[in-house]
Amino acid sequence: MEELAGTAGITVRTLRFYRERGLIPPPRREGRIAWYDGRHLARLRTIAALLERGHALSGIADLVAAFEHGRDVGQVLGLTGPTEETPVRLTPEELADHFEGEVTPENLAAALDLGYLATDGEEIVHISRRLLDVSAALVKEGIPLAAVLEAGRRVREHADELADLFTELLREHTEEKDAQRLRPLAKSVVDAELSMALDRRLRELS
Fold first, then answer.
1. Using CA atoms in the order 180, 183, 185, 188, what is the torsion angle rounded to 10 degrees?
2. Residue among 148, 190, 139 at smallest CA distance from 165
3. Partners of 125 in the β-ladder
4. Beta bridge partners of 167
């Protein structure tokens, strides 16, 4: 416990408090010895990063409790309706392999804020296989993960606006029961417009 606390830059008293609040999982025990590992350290660093970003400890505790006590992963990630996205379960080591050298406490906190990541027991859950693969590909091309996450945040804002636009359009001109059936049409319009917009921007660069 002392070694873990020292590595994480906190006091043993603080570590005990986190354990009592359920913010970190219990250690693996062998007789009277309690073993902590990289998962515990990663959790402590994530807690520290969230605290630095202004999250209250009580709120962090509530989130951890929700993730680890029976909530469906889809509910945790906000995927309660129809979606083409497939959540991905990862160990901390597997996540690090996707983003070598970029899995910092700050980036973890940003991904948690966006809802890209959640914890479910001892596993990490990414909201979308497609987003995970694209993000990893961009990082491999030399784009910092922090910049990828910031771009994701901005895309989220525009996507919410587009969803509002189509939802209002369907609400005004169709029956409620038709909304899910017509959902692919809205996606097709956005995909086509984005494709043409990229063509225009790339022509400007050439």
1. -150
2. 190
3. 89, 118
4. none
pLDDT digits (tens, 9 = 90+) for 147-175: 999 999 999 999 999 999 999 998 899 88
Q: Give Cα 68 distance to the centre of its chain.
A: 16
For helices 179-205 and 145-173, the axis angle rounded to 10 degrees is 130
pTM of the model as a whole:
0.62
Contact at 8 Å (CB) between 76 and 118?
Answer: yes
Instruction: Single out the residue of 79, 40, 47, 80 nearest to residue 63, CA to CA.
Output: 47
CA distance readout (Å), 56 to 5, 71, 90, 103: 20, 21, 26, 22
Token output for 12: 């043993």
Structure tokens at 16: 């005990």
